[in-house]
Fold TBC domain containing protein.
Amino acid sequence: MSEGKVDRYGFIKTQREKSEKEIEEEKRESAEEPEKEILWSNYLKNWKREMKKSRDDIAELIKRGIPETMRGTVWSKILDIESLPADINYKDLYQKAEGQEFTITIDKDLTRSLPQIKSFSQKETLERLKHILYAYGQYDHELGYTQGENFIAGLLIHYQEEEIAFKSFIQIMNHPRCLHRFYFTEGFPRLDIAINILRILLQKKYPKILKKIDNENMPISMFATQWFMTAFMAFNWDPEFQMRIFERFIFYGTRGLLGFALVIFSRHKKMFHEAKNFEEMLLVLQHPDTSEQMRDWRYALKKWNKLWIRKGQYQKLLKAVGAPAEKMC
């Protein structure tokens, strides 16, 4: 997938022709970009003060998408990398990791990371990704490395300088906003929480679909593990859609991911109800990015907003599955 022209995101262009409606939407969004850049620049001037004063306004802006030219900078602010200790020696960490057992898996995973992005066919980009994953494995020696981390770290280095991306990755894994490392630690505790909550949500919103899944004795983990562990980044979405998913994830964490999981079920409700065999459903659930129903990503985002899980609702869901309350950032 390394051949072909690239779009403004650095993604390899697909052969699919865009509709007139899509082209018009892109023109409108492009025209709005300068105004959004000014707005974001004002928030960035005093980020901590603005987050205290205008947190809900910033949250709504994130849902509308961060300007392409500012993504790396805004992500580092959202993830509060400035709060990390100043004495973290990035270069020392990845050098000390050389030869350790967890690096064997990292080396195998590098070329499988984000093949839709042109730069990931280049040795230099893969070397930067390796450094980040090596360094984090050394930094978090208890965890080391688990498959799935590469997709998240890869998107970071596509927009950020290497050491900034490493710090952003530390925060995705450990900051209360995401706590993503607990999807990978022994017993996968956060994955269990997400899957159990998803079951409750499906029982409430799409009981017939859940019954079909259960009748096949098919665990939700068969498709949802990849969803949650990679924050849906292992899939080949439209570039802007991929960034919007990622940005809601780094701001809202698991709460945002659960809402997006509901979007997939909502967009395929009719199809799943009419499916004659479970294989049809499983194909979509394991490869939602290939579904025609997810192609109109702007509509999917609107649906996500309608299915949004509010703070209070999320805390109740955590309690229902026996998980502790979480700090809502």
